[in-house]
Amino acid sequence: MPKSLIEIAYEFVAGNEGSVGFNKIWEHVKKEAGLSEEEANAKAGMFFTNLMLDGRFVTLGENIWDLRERHTFDKVHIDMRNVYSDVQTSDDDKEEDDEEEYNKIFEEETKEDDESSDEEGEDGEDSSDEGTDF
Predict the structure, then answer these.
(1) Which of 75, 11, 9, 80 is CA-nearest to residue 48?
(2) Co-location of 71 and 16 in the same domain
């Protein structure tokens, strides 16, 4: 049974002393699997996804990969609080901003309605039409 692309990658990275760049891994995998350029182009995205999802591998940043077993948890763990700390506003803040904008528009429309009703006569008819018979 032929080896999967990810198994070929595992053996390659395990055979290296240190971490390896993705392009070097992919070039080795393409060669070992005997992929044509067309096949390689079609499978590159799926291979990268499988590499990311395979728990045996870890990215060290800058598209450099190694085996997870070679690194301590502290070195390869990403604290998600740091990832999301750069977000400027939350969805709740966005909703509050939208509500404030809506209320501002509503207040402006209400003012315009009040001003136009001041121009009408007591019986609700527009004073500009007084004296016109239909």
Answers:
(1) 9
(2) yes
- Calculate the dihedral angle through the C-alpha atoms of 25, 30, 31, 34, rounding to the nearest 10 degrees: 160
Residues of the domain holding 109: 88-118
pLDDT, one tens digit per residue, over 19-77 is: 999 999 999 999 999 999 999 999 999 999 999 999 999 998 899 999 999 987 666 65
My answer on whether 16 and 66 are in the same domain is yes
133 belongs to a structural domain: no
Name the token pair of 49: 């996804």
Distance CA 8, CA 57 (A): 13
**Number of domains within the chain:** 2
